[in-house]
């Protein structure tokens, strides 16, 4: 059926277009009676106002894209929900674009920007390592969320929102050391992750050093590149290998909760107990870390704050209200059942 | 910077536009040398071909939207990954639109169809209960995925892909009965869910009846409407109430794995064991049902098959290659550690 327009509704009602618009938008300068009549006509004709006052309002020309690496990561679900709410409140349209682990998010963004005439972009997850000249091909503002750039990149040229991955990783390893653990395995990112993966590894090393513990690279196990990154399966496979090796350890720190849960599964399958035989710690603070049995000691990232700030900065950049900034939120060590003190 | 076009590239290379196009699209009728030269110029000028041969090709005018209720449901993650892959392979653009539990997915779809000029829609999750005249406002084909319509709706007027929710629910309850359970609690959908929620409840009732067991409505506990549907928290809260009631039971069947995990948490918190004190079963077969401790007995839905078939039917409808069909996939009872035989 042909689309009905606001002009058609105005004709049917015998009023002006402005009056119809007032009825739709709850404008005070319209009598209740006229408004009721117009809304009835709108309803009967299944007219969907383009500038409806509803929070669903979207405009094809005002779109924000969120490019996400690792959509199965439960941590991102909470962020996405906030993104969508905030973007809709600003009357922008929201595109969620998943990017494969091995896909180049910047290429996807450049293409998407052209095709969808984006106003802004959020890069979520993965690690971000691109040439400056390629980044300059993006002509709309963007914000990195939960990720950073490598140090050689000028921080005045981009914005980011995250926790301090070095410090929070340090916090967890420091805690495990304080519980008497001297042999702490790390399930880390792949070594080409020079962003959060590197920072969390550095935090681990520094905490060991501060406790006078030797760094044993055999206890640092990277996620498998042929498995989905940050997945339970990846944590499971890596831990199974570690358990079958000759390398001794009393605790595992996995750089995501999902990896930690995979680690737990491998430990249970080997007939061992958590935390009596091995302490296991994660990172993120997703729901399942609480619901798992045993509940998982973790670093809880403030997901809502991170997501809200990301959108705030993005819109400030769009409206040229700010220069580039780097917002770092504190995260929280949450001690639960999966870790214990050893002698 | 102004966008570079294929014409600019042709000029810079001193060749015709067709030649540039051939280079980009790996056409055989172009010498390797010319192709190399053109690709070098393309690279140096950061030109992004609009009709690149990459699977990223999207067109603003060819868009499929997936409207999803319950984005935190891990089961949907697997479906979404397949949707995206299949839609991109068909050179269509993919919009993922989350719909709140209390939001009307049909209203969202009607508005989205106008604004984004959609070619097709997938409705995923929730339950689908809409007036016929309102459905007719959708002018593009749509497929219901994992959901059905109420019986009064003419099946010749819509398409759907799902499992047989009645039969699969029956299968699980029949299994629990065969293990000696006579008092089986059900964590069900809200009573206004006249789609899969109702079918799974009916399957439960029928299995009890076939085993000569009385139906006790006090053991049927609906998810809380003020909590996110199908969430771990919902399962937790409902089970905590059940445990604190006077109602006796030896097994819980939750109509999703996430609800089942919430149920497990409540049982552990009450100082009880699984499966020794209570058997717990779920539905869906998501990854965490395997990784949980104990691993959860569940009904595994064939997520990939369901998602692929949904897209296949949708495109057949778009290309008018099919009339409406209802594809039902078998699901599989997966017995794991969370259930046991009792005397």
Automatic annotation (TrEMBL), chains A, B:
Domain HTH lacI-type: 4-58
A GO term for molecular function: transcription cis-regulatory region binding
Keywords: DNA-binding, Transcription, Transcription regulation
Signal peptide (UniProt feature, chain positions): none
InterPro entries: HTH_LacI, LacI/GalR-like_sensor, Lambda_DNA-bd_dom_sf, Peripla_BP_I
Name of the featured protein: Transcriptional regulator, LacI family
Organism: Fontibacillus panacisegetis
